[in-house]
Amino acid sequence: MTFMRSFMLLTFGLLSMHNVLAVEVTALPEELTVPGGIALVPTNTMASRAYYDNDAVLLAEFEGQQYAVVGIPLSAALGQHTITLQTPNGQEIVKHFQVSDKEYVEQRLTITNTRQVNPNNDDMVRINRESAEMREAFSSWDDSLQPVFQMRPPVDGIRSSSFGLRRFFNDQPRAPHSGMDIAADEGTPIFAPAPGVIRATGNYFFNGNTIILDHGHGLITLYCHMNTIDVEPGMRVETGEQIGKVGQTGRVTGPHLHWSVNLNNVRVDPALFLTE
Ligand SMILES: [Zn+2]
């Protein structure tokens, strides 16, 4: 009896070590295999884990087929990319997908607060601390949450196709635009587009009042420039629950919501998650 129990415990322990981390989903995001897009790679097996550029990749089971849902960075080179799958028995399988070109146009903005374009030394200390905080929140991996790929727009407003724009502030080149801007009046409510847990909130130099919402398995969304933040870290929110209001805090030219979607620590085009 004792032997049997310890045998079962041992077997159970080994099984959970190689736990399959795929989640069952009722919809996948739209596939767009360009820089800033998403590759849906059929695994043709039941992999327990997947990796791309050393980051864990979301594994989703949809209609009986498992897919690696891979976020492709805006900086990705064109051509063949590789992901590595791990099977429950410890085997490694390599899969490939192709990244094709997408032309992102230039955007030139004038910022009157020049410190937000050329920060001073004190600002840089703050900016570096805040980027580290945000990097940590974006690399979160929560297995206990069930990611949902079909999202509702977080705010009623004018959605621009501004993701990926090559940005110039006061004629100086800066990082490409890694989210979608939705213009709305100051005070317009912002809703959770999908269920999740508030991972972080803060007032950041560039992003202003900010929320990072974790949907699980590396799917994480970001809300910036808010007037008010109506949630606290650790809070669970459901689709349609108000999390804050539109504002113009941080580096902005007017009131809007900057909304980013993160997969495997990569910012991808939020439009690929919106149904309509
Ligand atoms: Zn933006």
Topology record:
Elements: H1 2-17, E1 23-24, E2 38-42, E3 49-52, E4 55-56, E5 58-62, E6 65-71, E7 79-86, E8 92-99, E9 106-109, H2 121-138, E10 158-159, E11 166-169, E12 172-173, E13 180-183, E14 189-191, E15 196-204, E16 208-216, E17 219-229, E18 236-237, E19 242-246, E20 256-263, E21 266-268
Parallel strand pairs: 1-5, 9-11
Antiparallel strand pairs: 2-6, 3-4, 3-7, 5-6, 7-8, 10-13, 11-12, 13-20, 14-19, 15-16, 15-18, 16-17, 17-19, 17-20, 20-21
Bound molecules: zinc ion.
Residues 177, 179, 181, 258 line the site of zinc ion (ZN).
Given as residue ranges, the uncertain stretches (5+ residues, pLDDT < 50) are: 1-18
Helix count from the secondary structure assignment: 2
Helix content percent band: 10-25%
CATH architecture of the largest domain: Distorted Sandwich
Tell me, briefly, the overall form.
Answer: globular
Query: What is the average of the pLDDT values?
Result: 89
- Main sheet makeup: 10 strands, antiparallel
Radius of gyration from the alpha-carbon trace, in angstroms: 20 Å
Q: Which small-molecule ligands are present, each listed once? A: zinc ion
Q: Strand-and-helix sequence, N→C?
A: HEEEEEEEEEHEEEEEEEEEEEE
The first-to-last residue Cα distance is 58 Å
Summed up, the domain count is 2
How many beta-strand elements? 21
- The CATH class designation of the largest domain is Mainly Beta
CATH superfamily of the largest domain: Glucose Permease (Domain IIA)
Helical/strand content category = mainly beta
Annotated CATH topology of the largest domain? Glucose Permease (Domain IIA)
Q: Estimate the strand proportion.
A: 35-45%
